[in-house]
Amino acid sequence: xxxxxxxxxxxxxxxxxxxxxxxxxxxxxxxxxxxxxxxxxxxxxxxxxxxxxxxxxxxxxxxxxxxxxxxxxxxxxxxxxxxxxxxxxxxxx
Amino acid sequence: xxxxxxxxxxxxxxxxxxxxxxxxxxxxxxxxxxxxxxxxxxxxxxxxxxxxxxxxxxxxxxxxxxxxxxxxxxxxxxxxxxxxxxxxxxxxx
DNA sequence: TTGACATGCAACTAATAAGTTGCATATAAT
DNA sequence: ATTATATGCAACTTATTAGTTGCATGTCAA
Lengths: 93, 93
Prior knowledge:
homodimer, alpha+beta, Arc Repressor Mutant, subunit A, 3-stranded antiparallel sheet, 4 helices, about 45% helix, DNA-binding, HTH_MetalResp_TranReg (chains A, B)
């Protein structure tokens, strides 16, 4: 059974940096924290540290929007769309 | 042409009190600020002042999620679902 | 026109959240 | 083993925002 924490999901989506992270994750199946960090800084011109991004990831993971596993030296991160499925139900349709 | 301020929309949805406001507005076609205030306080047990709610409404209106007109003594408020339509496009479907 | 009612505006406080710095730990490669 | 690489953790600072108080404005009814 899946915990429905709409609150955490909406909060997570409220930050623009986190939405860019999801945009990036939406493009490839999985990515390391390091890869993601360089992409955000280089491609999106964000001025943020790796630790800053790690905190955003913690928020996204808490909301269930991101899942991650440690693979050797790397932390592999992937987008979980499930919490988004019926998010706007009750207001739309 | 409609301005697409996803940023303001996501921010607006990030607060639980504002989501309750939308829930209430979703139930009837329009409501006065006064009506809304009493509903939030009585029905939802929120401890918040009228001014606090007015500020939330300003945020929602900025995001285009709410529209309001002054009718005589009252301010009539209604839910505008339009900004929600394709909000999750790019991530879902 | 006077009083009651509904709302608007602005300054302030308090809570939350974004982002940083500094250091520790774990794995890979040489 | 030792070094470089990738990440984890915690305390701190700063920015943002929720919420309040106090007063002003506008409208309706008597």
